[in-house]
Specification:
This protein has 92 residues and is an alpha/beta fold. It has one domain. The protein has 3 helices and 5 strands, in the order E-E-H-E-H-H-E-E. A hairpin with a 5-residue loop joins strand 1 and strand 2. The longest helix is centred in the first third of the chain and has 13 residues. The protein is globular and about 35 Å long.
Length: 92
């Protein structure tokens, strides 16, 4: 799903099912799926991953902040929607 922000920036929105672990590996897979839709652009600007009523540990959060270090397709911004709160993870 693509969502629009107040700044008219398109954001790819992905979500984890309740049974999928909310860790950097599984969240990273959702980011990769979002970036795969945009083969014409080298960098997808914004990805939002909804992990529902769960949260991530500080270690998992730090791992997500390093997503672009090894990603085949980089992202500009990463946000997590956890427990109803939108939290910025990565900004380039």
């Amino acid at each position: 799903m693509v969502a629009a922000s107040r700044r008219d920036i398109e954001a790819e929105h992905k979500g984890l099912s309740e049974t999928t672990p909310a860790d950097a590996v599984h969240i990273g897979r959702q980011i990769a799926k979002a970036t795969a839709k945009n083969k014409r652009r080298k960098t997808v600007h914004t990805v939002i991953v909804d992990i529902g009523a769960r949260d991530v540990t500080n270690e998992e959060f730090a791992a997500l902040q390093r997503y672009n270090d090894t990603a085949e397709r980089r992202i500009g911004e990463l946000w997590l929607l956890a427990q109803g709160t939108l939290r910025q993870v990565l900004e380039e």
